[in-house]
Specification:
Elements (H helix, E strand, L loop, with lengths): L1 E2 L4 E6 L4 E6 L5 E6 L3 E6 L4 E6 L4 E6 L5 E5 L5 E6 L4 E6 L3 E6 L5 E6 L8 E4 L4 E6 L4 E6 L5 E6 L13 E6 L3 E6 L4 E5 H6 L5 E2 L2
Antiparallel strand pairs: 1-2, 2-3, 3-4, 5-6, 6-7, 7-8, 9-10, 10-11, 11-12, 13-14, 14-15, 15-16, 17-18, 18-19, 19-20
Length: 209
């Protein structure tokens, strides 16, 4: 999902193939566009949503007022998370091990990084300082990826805990602020991880919800 800053959140509905807009004050929901296989979504701040389609391997541009859909790129495999850098580039993760960079203006693509074969880049965010962070629910990893050189490493992962302890299992959703990374998991937990500690050491922070 993505927030527009004006009280509307945009959500993809994979099962019904839709991009939805939810008015947070009224609680109303409208269908912005039909997008079969809709998965990741990001907003450019200029009235456009960028939606990845899992199965079709596309990045689509959706004009949120009119619902007009335009194809930006295809051949992206099992496209999943989407992030925009504000300078005309989109980064698309996959439910496999590749992170793509797409130049929106001319649809050129390049592979930023290819992670180990068991990895995924399900959700992607940018830190504004040359790195992408991606969640991998199957390997229980949060990875940092250099956008310029593709260098990547695991910055948080599940560790062997004492019996009964809570672990960093199946990370999925991801957001950053100035100091922290927030990671939701398929086990229904929200973790907060210090960016400084992750950059220096790797490891897991604390559960906040």
């Amino acid at each position: 999902m993505a927030l527009d800053g004006d009280g509307t959140v945009y959500v993809t509905d994979y099962d019904d193939g839709r991009l939805l807009a939810v008015d947070l004050s009224a609680g109303s929901v409208r269908t912005v566009a039909r997008v079969p296989g809709a998965d990741g979504v990001a907003l450019d701040g200029r009235g456009n949503a960028y939606v990845s389609t899992w199965g079709r391997g596309q990045l689509l541009e959706v004009e949120v007022r009119s619902g007009q859909v335009s194809a930006i790129a295809d051949g992206l495999g099992s496209a999943a998370g989407v992030a925009l850098d504000g300078t005309g580039k989109a980064y698309v993760g996959q439910k496999n091990n590749v992170l793509h960079e797409i130049t929106v203006a001319d649809s050129t693509k390049r592979v930023v990084a290819t992670l180990p074969s068991t990895a995924k880049t399900t959700r992607v965010v940018l830190d504004g300082a040359g790195k992408a962070y991606a969640t991998d629910p199957d390997s229980h990893h949060l990875c940092a990826i250099g956008l310029a050189d593709g260098a990547h490493r695991v910055v948080a992962t599940r560790r062997d805990p004492p019996a009964g302890a809570v672990t960093f299992d199946r990370p999925q959703g991801l957001a950053l602020d100035k100091d922290w990374m927030y990671v939701s998991t398929k086990k229904g937990l929200l973790w907060r991880i210090s960016q400084r500690a992750a950059q220096a050491l790797g490891g897991v922070g604390g559960i906040i919800a």
